[in-house]
Amino acid sequence: xxxxxxxxxxxxTPSPAQALESSAVRPLPGRRDGxxxxxxxxxxxxxLIIYSSAGxxxxxxxxxxxxxxxxxxxxxxxxxxRPHHVPRPQAGLAYTRxxxxxxxxxGLIERxxxxxxxxxxxxTTALAQVSxxxxxxxxxxxxxxxxxxxxxxxxxxxxxxx
Length: 162
Fold this sequence. Notes:
alpha+beta
């Protein structure tokens, strides 16, 4: 239900941060279920990604030469993690044609015995090595390189060539 509500709200609000602040997607009073959400919009004409994240690891904007930028300037705790409303941050990042946006859940990179910085470094190293692949091949290569045997966390991965 939350996914459907957020999908409707993002179409009716002018920004991703405002969509995450909507009462339609906030947990019910008294519940702090810590739901992770990330929302973004893509403005094709201005070549701008506008984003806000509620508990997700940062998406990566991968350039064809293997360099990258983490979309980590608008991160915030999961929905319902705060007892009182605080406006959510929002940021924008320009891209060029041929860049690739990589969005994923924590199950792809996190390991119980590892610092998040090491997990992100493993991801960005893998991305640099496969930056020239087509999106479907890039996704397959990331899954092959990053998913540890015996991983029981859910994994979602979206790779979009811009």
